[in-house]
Amino acid sequence: MRTDDLIRAISADAARRSPPLRAAWWAAAAVSFAVAAVAFFILLGPRADIALAAETPRFLFKFLVTGLLAASAFALLRLLARPGAPVSRAAPLLALAPLLLADVNKRLGDGTLARIDLTDVFFDKRVQ
What we know:
128 residues; mainly alpha; 6 helices; disordered C terminus
């Protein structure tokens, strides 16, 4: 057996298949979401008035801001994991949640948010 053949045979035996990076990222996101949910319910527990609170704009807004921040951070983290990736593309996404908070804070100050009913956006209240 020639040396080149031996090296090819050894390297073929030693090759390990790793899971695709995309699958690893989504698995990590799912596990982190599950761990966060379990920690939340263990430490804080569900609200007693969750049905009543779900009808308020503040309750729904918390999910919107948290989801927006998590999604933008996840996108930026995936980009940062690749050496030489253009971060300038995803970095502005992190500004979306603070900008949304600043806009709502301004609207709460001048009273225009009180006239917006977010439950109409998320729940269809039409009688059929």
